[in-house]
Design goal:
- By secondary structure, the protein is mostly helical.
- It has 5 helices and no strands.
- Helix 1 packs antiparallel against helix 2 (54-74) and helix 1 packs parallel to helix 5.
- The longest helix is centred in the first third of the chain and has 29 residues, at 21-49.
């Protein structure tokens, strides 16, 4: 669940609104957890169905695009309201998600297709 920023006043300092750092950090943590969890599940699925090579990595990138669009949808396509930047939704935990994906992918592929 996205946590909205603290109650904001209409007073702005330049172009930056008063945002709660604690809530932004909690939102970043939620995106990170979501990406790692979905990447692990997608890795398990890719290993179970036996994807190899470029198709396995393609599955990860499709899953990443899907989860990023779902997170943007959840934020009503106003990511700057909940995060420091819109790119945070797309890049938070991207490399760690890839590592989790490859771990689960190779583990399940090895269990089901090699033995």
């Amino acid at each position: 669940k996205m946590i909205p920023p603290a109650a904001q006043t209409e007073e702005e300092v330049g172009d930056v609104k008063d945002l709660s750092p604690n809530r932004m950090q909690e939102n970043n943590r939620a995106v990170y957890f979501c990406r790692i969890f979905v990447s692990s599940v997608a890795g398990c699925a890719a290993g179970i169905i036996g994807l190899t090579g470029i198709y396995g990595f393609l599955c990860y990138f499709i899953t990443t695009l899907f989860i990023s669009s779902l997170l943007l949808f959840k934020a009503n396509f106003q990511a700057s309201k909940y995060f420091t930047s819109t790119s945070t939704v797309a890049t938070e935990g991207l490399f760690q998600g890839l590592l989790s994906y490859v771990l689960c992918w190779t583990l399940f592929f090895g269990f089901l297709n090699c033995y």
